[in-house]
Design a protein that fits this description.
The chain has 401 residues and is of the alpha/beta class. 38% of the residues lie in helices and 18% in strands. The protein starts with a strand and ends with a strand.
Length: 401
């Protein structure tokens, strides 16, 4: 299964605008709750230095793209239905939201930093609502959702564990199957929370809620996109520090600005690279007065103030949270090509700590099953199955097939 990042939050905070800006897709955008009912899926790109510059060659990417030495590595995004209070009880589109969330490996929580959206997702006066409340609200909903799954038939599970001397983390992993939650996540949570492995029947509801919270944090890491930053009052922008203090990465973002810049670039009005802190107007004479006003506003209130629109930073930070590196497998280490003659064709995400043999399995099961050795294309040295991959490695897999 490919890596997937969930775009989450309450209605009307700019989730679909963020999704469109990040993926260049066209999810419906409107100023009312529940615009997004069915999850939108798209592809975002993580920016990494392409080895083509280092090797002084022109690459021919296959599963990604390269622009001026920057490799854009695809990762799947899912924009899910907006969440309202008590969604875990099925309120609003809660069940739909939580089902869509199951496969996400990490979450980008879109928060209205301007405080202009109430708890139900309805537009309100700027500055009226505390963005920190939105963060706590989403935490609560996911925690109670996980707790509800764990509690279903809990007494029978706990008794069986004690009577048959089964590992409680294994049994919980079975209950949480399909959520991307592994046995080691649960084992770590139980240990860190000092819960009794042998006597789960003694765990209280408070223990189960703490367990759910810990499992959520290790299995579905989340960062906060502080959206609408250009219209947020200073006192609410300062709330970003309060959110960081409870353990989150916070990125000021303006999804509308990113979308506007990308649209202007597509029309040939400006030269703009996503993630950059500026743009160049190509044909000023072709710009209308209204277009020029918008571009000047974005430049002054977003790019100069925050350094970028924040969209690309959110994507790149989400990948860092997942502790992923990018590796380039080739079939000819001398020419850096595959069997089709494409140069540096593929870029694969791998978990940090993965081995050469893990990469072989990633490329094809047969390569992993018949692995002999690997070759580091930079040093031309042979490395073994247990070689720990580094970010940006170019590797040839040798297999007996």
């Amino acid at each position: 299964m490919s890596m997937q990042i969930g775009i989450v939050g309450k209605p009307n905070v700019g989730k679909s605008t963020f999704f469109n800006a990040a993926t260049e897709a066209h999810a419906e955008i409107a100023n009312y709750p529940f615009t997004t009912i069915d999850a939108n899926r798209g592809v975002m790109y993580v920016n990494k230095p392409c080895p083509c510059k280092e090797f002084n060659i022109k690459c021919t990417p296959h599963n990604s793209k390269c622009i001026n030495g920057t490799r854009y590595v695809p990762i799947e995004a899912i924009d899910v239905a907006g969440l309202v209070p008590d969604a875990y009880k099925g309120r609003g589109l809660g069940n739909k939201f939580l089902d869509d969330l199951r496969q996400a490996h990490a979450l980008i929580h879109i928060v209205d930093s301007s405080g202009g959206t109430d708890s139900e997702g309805n537009p309100s006066n700027i500055g009226k609502y505390d963005p920190l409340d939105d963060v706590k609200f989403l935490e609560r909903e996911i925690n109670y959702w996980l707790m509800g799954i764990i509690k279903k038939g809990w007494e029978a599970v706990a008794r069986r564990c004690e009577l048959e001397e089964k590992k409680i983390e294994s049994m919980l992993a079975e209950k949480l199957t399909g959520l991307g939650i592994k046995e080691e996540h649960i084992h770590e949570a139980i240990r860190k929370l000092n819960l009794n492995f042998e006597k789960p029947s003694r765990w209280t509801d408070e223990d189960l809620l703490r367990l759910s919270d810990y499992i959520k944090k290790v299995s579905k890491p989340m960062l906060i996109a502080f959206n609408k930053c250009d219209v947020a009052p200073d006192n609410l922008l300062a709330k970003a520090d309060d959110i960081r203090k409870i353990g989150y990465i916070v990125v000021p973002t303006s999804a509308e600005s990113e979308l506007a810049l990308k649209n202007a670039a597509k029309k040939g009005l400006i030269n703009y690279k996503t993630g950059s802190g500026g743009f160049k107007i190509l044909e000023e004479s072709s710009l209308t007065e209204a277009q020029l006003k918008v571009l000047n506003y974005i430049n002054d209130h977003v790019l100069k103030k925050f350094g970028s629109t924040g969209i690309q930073k959110c994507i790149d930070e989400a990948v860092k949270m997942l502790d992923l590196i990018v590796v380039y497998p080739v079939e000819d280490e001398a020419h850096l090509t595959d069997k089709e003659g494409r140069i540096l064709p593929d870029a694969h995400f791998m978990k940090r700590g993965s081995t050469a043999k893990d990469l072989a399995y990633k490329v094809h099961t047969d390569l992993g099953d018949h692995f002999i050795r690997a070759i580091d294309a930079r040093t031309h040295r042979v490395v073994g199955a247990d070689y720990i991959l580094k970010d940006g490695d170019v590797i040839r897999i040798v297999a007996n097939i």
